[in-house]
Amino acid sequence: MQHAGIAALEDGAPTLARMRAAYAKRRTLLVDGLRKLGFGVPAVPQGAFYVFADARSFDTDSRRLAFDLLERAGVATAPGIDFGVAGEGFLRFCYAASEADLEEGLARLAAILRTR
User: Which site in 21, 29, 53, 101 is 20 to 30 Å from 46, CA atoms measured?
Assistant: First the structure.
């Protein structure tokens, strides 16, 4: 195990650079897509792989909205209320998925949100 860690530290920079670029592209895709759908994204994430989006234009009850999107669109989000009272009205989206899956999720959200 220690040899693998040493190898990763010594030779892993190109792989790390590719991974960071891929996540940056996915982050941009998701943030831009959510904004086009009408979500507010007050802060573009700089770490991890989650976007905390203001969904109050769709529903002020984040748990109800999260379950509705899961049921009707097949898109899983985390309700903001799960992160404390200040998170109510927000949804957390994850971009640790392929670009194709993110695009599919955004398309599904678009179809459902038009009917809300």
Answer: 101
